[in-house]
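Structure (tokenized):
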């Protein structure tokens, strides 16, 4: 699955082919937004929810999207079909839409840009290693960097300014962890670089609120408001500090591309993993939810 299919402003091509101007503002300044989907059969899972978040991200930086959602869905179908034709892949696909403010003379002023440009990327969605479901992922708290404050570039927006998350991940990978736990400037737990965090204490599930500085993940929203729960289990938003990480029985990550992934450790704190855990019950429930709600269909 090394081949990566791209679609730049309607032109299908190998992602390795040079197509972006050196003056592109996304390349020069991170002046861009993006969104990620996955397929479920010939459907884009939670297409509208992700599209609405893309609109919010674009609005937050004053960027007018160059495509509407109908055109976007059509181009996703074309790009997925091209990827499948090229590779023979028939499984689920990863989809990323990147929108740049455009090109223009060197300079920070957004009025220098000509027009917004977009690129879709499609590849096969990597399958989660089955051993992770049994052993869980190891996480570590990032120490050098913290979540950027919401009064700056709000982490709720998916923009091209991803350095904060990248450096947190780089830090913990260097000491052997699979993923990072990012704290905000008050020492509260926010999220992992590409996933929301949930914690389990008996039959209560907790996740940090948006006010802590987290992305409003679509999978997070499904878990909070739509996913059927085992009797007596509640899901609650609340502030969580680093000192409270040892108070929980289980922990899991939630994201569009991975749905629910168990966590076995955060530094010295250990959590229950494997069959029979609340985490795995929720993962099973999420799979059923996807079967019943596969998303918006496309011709691909």
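Design, position by position:
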């Amino acid at each position: 699955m090394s081949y990566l299919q791209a679609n730049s402003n309607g032109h299908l091509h190998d992602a390795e082919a040079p197509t972006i101007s050196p003056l592109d503002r996304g390349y020069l300044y991170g002046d861009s937004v993006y969104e990620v989907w996955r397929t479920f059969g010939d459907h884009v899972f939670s297409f509208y929810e992700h599209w609405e978040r893309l609109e919010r991200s674009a609005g937050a930086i004053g960027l007018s999207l160059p495509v509407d959602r109908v055109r976007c869905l059509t181009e996703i179908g074309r790009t997925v079909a091209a990827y499948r034709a090229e590779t023979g892949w028939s499984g689920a696909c990863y989809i990323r839409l990147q929108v740049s403010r455009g090109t223009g003379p060197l300079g920070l002023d957004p009025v220098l840009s000509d027009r917004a440009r977009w690129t879709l990327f499609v590849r096969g969605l990597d399958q989660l290693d089955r051993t992770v479901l049994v052993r869980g992922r190891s996480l570590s708290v990032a120490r050098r960097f913290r979540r950027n404050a919401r009064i700056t570039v709000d982490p709720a927006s998916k923009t091209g300014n991803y350095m904060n998350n990248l450096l947190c991940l780089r830090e913990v990978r260097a000491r052997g962890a699979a993923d990072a736990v990012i704290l905000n400037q008050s020492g509260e737990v926010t999220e992992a670089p590409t996933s929301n965090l949930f914690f389990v204490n008996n039959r209560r599930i907790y996740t940090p609120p948006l006010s802590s500085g987290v992305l409003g993940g679509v999978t997070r929203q499904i878990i909070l408001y739509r996913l059927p729960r085992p009797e007596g289990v509640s899901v609650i938003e609340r502030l969580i500090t680093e000192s409270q990480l040892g108070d929980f029985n289980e922990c899991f990550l939630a994201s569009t591309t991975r749905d629910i992934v168990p966590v076995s450790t955060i530094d010295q704190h250990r959590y229950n993993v494997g069959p029979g855990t609340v985490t795995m019950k929720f993962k099973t429930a999420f799979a059923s939810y996807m079967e019943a709600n596969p998303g918006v269909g496309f011709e691909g």
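Reviewer-requested clarification: The chain is about 25% helix and 25% strand. Helices lie at 25-29, 47-60, 69-87, 130-135, 163-174, 218-225, 278-292.
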